[in-house]
Design goal:
Glutamine Phosphoribosylpyrophosphate, subunit 1, domain 1, single chain, elongated, seven-stranded antiparallel sheet, 23 strands, 2 domains, 26% strand, alpha+beta, Rossmann fold
Amino acid sequence: MKIKEKCGVFGIYAFDQKWNVSRFVYYGLIASQNRGQETCGIATYNGNEIKCIKGRGMVEEFFTAEKLEKTPGWIGIGNVCPFSPESTNNIQPVSDNKTQLVFSYNGKILNFKEISPNSNTGPDEDPNVAAKLLSQELEKSDPLQATETVMEKFKGAYSFVAITKNGEMIVARDPMGIKPLCIGSFGFDHGAVASESATLDIIGADYKAPIKPGEIYVFTPYSIERKQAFKPQPKYCAFEYVYFARPDSIINDKSVYEARMKIGEHLAKEFPVEADAVIGVPETAIPFAMAYSNYTGTPIEMGFVRTGRAVRTAIKPTQFERLVGVQLKLNPIRSAIRGKKVVLIDDSVVRGTTTRNIVNLMRNRIGAKEVHVRIGSPRLISPCPFGVEVPEKDELIAANLTPEEVSKVVGADTFAWLSLKGVIDSIGFPKEKLCLGCFTGKYPIEE
């Protein structure tokens, strides 16, 4: 799997100014690193000024105790991202030139060049464009109205959280709700927002609800204002449930774990095969494999042991790093594989290189008797315009080869993808409320 989401956002607002929330943001970002491991940043407001520290690398490596001590404040936001822009100015959170606000964002504004005040806007600068436009509108109107005004200009998929120079925290989600965002609380003392509910769990906040598509929240020292600024037109990203989100998260009020277990059941119903063992590729495909095993009665085996910490090879920036990452993080258990007919379950296949690498390892080095590959997502046939970095169509193995041909390419005995109906039924939303563009080539908004 070689797909990168773009990015993870987090925000926390303490209504008591005695609080220092920088460590809450720090732990929230650690919990969000499934959404990005290349850059990270924290911004806080202490009542007088906004401070922002950001850089390249994983959260626990970049942020030392000394750096966290430099960002005291009772309002904080953060960001993790799966790619590293050339300029540090484009690492999030970003700020406008006058530091009217800091801005953490997930998604893609498709028309950012057209609405940018700067004609030389670069390809990675849509967060900067959004921050600048929001800052300009805040000089003219209150935060709710300013946010609604800029959202009217945006075309794309996004969720964001921002801190203003006046100590307000602004939170918003686009009318399609493609990028997830939810809200939680610590009683009456704090409010928190995050891309995923598991982030709220980790910091001890209570998950309340998803922020609705087209909804805006404004936190002030005395209140939380809320407005349904645009009519919800849900087109929730199906890949959140297949791959991006943590299994312990609730996305759009649907359990990711339950969706993945249902995916495994559908795989078993659609593509059963006589085998000695079911093995899931860690980590995402483990629930698929558990459910496949439960349904078919084929024993599940622990086929691989992860080495080192949880680094998601799918969001590493280069093909070489992804292949090396697979070898480093997944060491096979020989006795679980040797001489057996194995059902190997993974979350997706993009180019097929990593799958071929794993199948070759199992067959030729370990001695599996048969390897039957089952994929817990439909065929990926189209790149995504909304900030998910899927390769171009001519690089996608599913767009160019049949399952039988893919089976030969990766060295498997048989190969099958989950059906489109299977993923829709597993997630539990009607087809019209899901973005399935990477599987169908039809997106809610075209570039």
